[in-house]
Specification:
19 helices, mainly alpha, 84% helix
Length: 335
């Protein structure tokens, strides 16, 4: 009997290990699978909040506390990056939305953009940075600090800019965000205590596989209606998709330029984090009570979120190679 149980558990474990080893390829494939199988989206849509909660748990569970404390001893860069992603980005996005008159011409799209600006970076950002060979620790520390602040900053910006566009009060939004983050952090802490950091590190690949499965659940739930929207109104859907890509790459480029003095590779890592906004957290906090256009934009942002890390991998490799060459040359010059 024990051998039978070992075989039963070994097969899914091998599958998750293989899936976790696919890296950015698997992340990119998720967006296409989610669109290609609409019934999957209809089945999984009620579980968006649970999927976000599990993604947060896994991310908090894998935080490298030693690296976290090391970066917190040098807080200037972390503070600057945190201020940019939690205050600078939502403020600029909100002002751009009002300046272009989008609040009147398309309130649902305006709401989507402002919720995107107010969101914290995705919890998967450090893992994506690591897969691309970038400074994942810097991304992780900034992610932790900005995520801790987002219940307060999101509530503030919602009260300033959203008005009656949001179905819940700004204070309620902040409290829900705080509750989701606190609960996931508590669950992750319990898991770390039960199994230990060493065991989590040993099982990195299968945990990556679980992460990809949960990402598929979330993407399917959000993107389930994209194919229908494309058939019903192709021009509008394509325009919204192009906007989603434009916002993603604009955030990436502007952030990289702002922080270029710390080194292009590290600035690119911060840019990747800032462009990867955690819209799922905003969906969970609002319980999905959003206009159809907002849902459509959130769905189409999954394409740049899932495809960009794969597409940007060659750039990241060149930047890290250049940084390694520069550091090696500096070390040789001091000998």
């Amino acid at each position: 009997m024990p051998s039978v149980l070992q075989t039963v558990f070994a097969l899914p474990l091998r599958g998750l290990t293989w899936l976790g080893g696919q890296g950015t390829r698997a992340v990119a494939a998720i967006a296409f699978i989610a669109v290609a199988v609409p019934p999957l989206g209809a089945l999984l849509r009620p579980y968006v909040t649970e999927a976000i909660f599990l993604l947060l748990c896994i991310s908090f569970m894998r935080v490298d506390l030693v690296a976290l404390y090391g970066h917190l001893r040098r807080p200037a860069l972390v503070a600057a990056a945190t201020a940019w992603t939690t205050i600078g980005v939502p403020l600029i996005v909100a002002l751009a939305v009002y300046a272009t008159g989008l609040t009147n011409s398309s309130p649902g799209l305006a709401l989507a953009l402002m919720l995107q600006g107010m969101a914290s970076p995705m919890m998967a950002a450090p893992a994506l940075a690591a897969l691309m060979g970038l400074d994942a620790t810097l991304v992780l520390v900034t992610l932790v600090t900005s995520t801790a602040l987002v219940p307060f900053t999101a509530s503030l910006f919602a009260s300033l800019f959203l008005g009656g566009m949001l179905s819940i009060a700004p204070l309620t939004l902040g409290l829900k965000l705080l509750g989701i983050l606190a609960a996931s952090l508590l669950a992750a802490t319990i898991i770390r205590r039960l199994f230990g950091t060493a065991a989590i590190q040993r099982h990195k690949r299968p945990i990556d596989g679980i992460n990809i499965v949960i990402l598929l659940v979330f993407a399917s739930a959000v993107m389930g209606d994209v194919a229908t929207d494309l058939i019903t109104d192709p021009l509008f859907t394509i325009a919204v998709a192009l906007l989603a890509f434009a916002v993603y790459f604009t955030l990436l480029a502007v952030t990289t330029l702002i922080f270029r003095r710390i080194g292009t590779d590290r600035a690119f890592a911060i840019g990747l984090m800032v462009s990867q906004r955690n819209l799922g957290l905003m969906l969970a906090a609002t319980a999905g009570a959003l206009p159809a256009t907002t849902w459509l934009y959130f769905a189409l942002t999954q394409f740049p979120l899932h495809l960009a890390p794969y597409l940007l991998m060659p750039i990241a490799r060149r930047l890290t190679a250049r940084a390694d060459t520069s550091s090696g040359a500096a070390a040789n010059s001091t000998i």
